[in-house]
Amino acid sequence: MADGTGNDLLAAVQAALRAEHAAVYGYGVVGGRIREGRRAEAKTAYDAHRARRDDLRRTARDLGGTPEESAGAYALPFPVPDSAAAARLAADIEDKIGGAYSDLVRAASGDRRRAAADALREAAVRAVRWRGGSVAFPGLTERAAVPSASASASSVTPRT
Are 122 and 130 a contacting pair, CB within 8 Å? Predict the structure, then answer.
C-alpha cells in the first residue's frame, strides 16, 4: 500500500506530469479545430491543464525529483480534421488524464491525494461535457485495453 512518500509517489507525479504535457499539446490541436461555440470551453481546459502541469512540476521538485520535460511534438491517436474529431480528442485526453490521476490518488496521501482526486473529478466532468455522456468509473476506462495506466498515461504520445 502506498504511503504517499517515496518512489511510488514521485513516479505517479511524473506520470501525471507527462499526461499533462500531452494534454496541453492536445488541447492546442483541439483549440485549432473546434467550432466557434466550444472554443471558450477548449481554452478553459487548456488553461486548467497548464496550471496542473505547473503544479506537478513544483511537486516533483518538492519530492526531490527532476520534473519530466515536455516532448517537442506528440502523435495524435487519430486524425483531427474537424470540430467533431476535436471534441473526440478532448474527451480522449480527459479519459487518459483521469487514468494518470487515478494512479496518483492511489500513491498519495493527505493534501496531495485530495488534489489528485480533484483533478480526476475535473477530468471526468470535462470528458462528459466533450463526449456528451459518462463512463462508470472515470480514470479506469483505459485499463481494459492497457495493462497499466502509467504505461499509457496520455492519448497523445511523444514523437521521437
Answer: no
